[in-house]
Structures are given as structure tokens and as C-alpha cells.
Specification:
2 copies of one chain form a homodimer. Chain A is mainly α. The first copy, chain A, has one domain: Arc Repressor Mutant, subunit A. In chain A, 57% of the residues lie in helices and 10% in strands. In chain A, strands 1-2 form a two-stranded antiparallel ribbon. At the A-B interface, helix 1, helix 2, helix 6 and helix 7 of A face helix 1, helix 2, helix 6 and helix 7 of B.
Chain lengths: 149, 149
Amino acid sequence: MSGTQENLRSHCPVNYGLEAFGDRWALLILRDIIFRGKRKYGDFLQSEEGVSTNILASRLTRLVEEGILERAEDENDGRKSIYKLTPKGLDLIPVIFEIILWSAKYDKHSQAKLIPRLVQQIKSNNRELSGDIIRRVANGEAILKTYLD
Amino acid sequence: MSGTQENLRSHCPVNYGLEAFGDRWALLILRDIIFRGKRKYGDFLQSEEGVSTNILASRLTRLVEEGILERAEDENDGRKSIYKLTPKGLDLIPVIFEIILWSAKYDKHSQAKLIPRLVQQIKSNNRELSGDIIRRVANGEAILKTYLD
């Protein structure tokens, strides 16, 4: 997470992705938005992995700078921000889905066991599934609850 | 890259993946093996992103501990090691391909422009393509040269 468009270590397409979002905490923020519908700093802070306040703040700023998130004023409290995925951020959904598929295969204690239907759909056709999920997340839906059987 | 199977912050399938390989330098090592057929410490050290010696050594050790890479003795020089992907490591190829697809779309200077055929194949059917590429990489092939038109 050290580069910007103008200051990349290389334009190798693997490196570009990793400089933009290739940080554990950054991708966990995206997970929280996609699966749990989180939008606020305080909500991200409560995730079970225990992100620290300074790391969370720096990653949110960075994701906005990268054009992956956009920040808006909270309608109910103008001192607070809400975050949502841009189209560039929504297009990371297929990447996150491939990570889920890999973890479901190799983590014997994986919580992916709770969402077998999603895992199966990723395996069958990630591209088609992602198109559908992108539309739902763009509409503010939290998709996790629809996959917990 | 701070967890192990026994010491994970959560078994969320996104988090599991990120704790295992979710580090920029770790994924660049995998890229170098898959695309460029690199196998040795000295070869990884020369990549254009400029990894430092201590980060490279720590990431190689970590990827071996995670079961993503295996280390063997170099037949030509017993003091040196060669690294190759395990089946668990090879199964990260579809993840890396999705990152490439995303970067090809959003990085206007992307080197992905040099490999349009690969980008198109990822888009059409990542799963099928990955099955083929996994077999080729397992056989020690460096795939980049076959995609540079």
C-alpha cells in the first residue's frame, strides 16, 4: 500500500493490484462492506480480527485515494462519514470470491462451511455470480445473510 | 502474514487467505514462479519492485510454513535452495489471475497490455484456464513467454 498511480514500483498487473488493495486490513474492510453492509468507521472497528484505530483510518484514506471507496457525509450525523464501494471497488468482488474458494479448500476450520451455496456458486461461475452480487452490493445489500442457510 | 493455522485472528475465509498469502511481497514471489519460472533466492531478489533481502527471506520462510511453497536442495549447489509451488500454492493461480484482470481494467499504464490473450482467457473462463496453467507450472514451465505476442 505504498504506491499511487504515479508512484508505482511497477505496472506489472499483479503488482498494481497489490499496491492498490494488497493489504490484509484493506481487503477486510471490503469484506465488511460486501458481506455485512458496513459503512462506518465505528462498524469496521468492531470486526473480530481486531484492527487498530490508526491502521483502520490509514486504510480507509488509502482506499479512497485509490478510487476503491468513496466517502460521503452521514445524513444522520454530519461529523461522521459513510463509505461505499466505487465501480472500481465493486470489481474486486471476483478477487475476494477466489480467495474464499481457496480458503474453503485449505482451511479445515473455515467459516466458509457456513456458506456452502456461495462457495459452490463461485466454483461454478465466479464471473456470472459476481455480476449479480456487484449489482446487489451497489444497491446497499449485505449479502452474507442471504447465504447463511 | 502474522497468523498460522493455530493462531488465526479468524477463520473467516477472506481472513484466512489474507493471513496465509495476503502480503504484497509474498504474492510477487508467486508471480515470479508462475510467470517467469524463478526458483532461487537470488532470482527473486532481482525483481523490478526491489524487495529487500530481509523481507524476501522472511516471506519465503513464511510461504514454506504455510504449505504454499516447498523448499528443496539445489542439485547444482547443495548450499542453495530451490523453491516450488505446492498444490496449495498452485491453487492460488486463479486468485492471481483475477488480480491481473482487475489491474488490466484500471491501470492505464498496465503491462497487461503486453499479454492481451491471457487477459481475454481469464475473462472468458478463469477456472478452465487455471486448470491448464496449474498443470504447466507444476511441470516447471514459465508461462509468461508463451503469452507475449
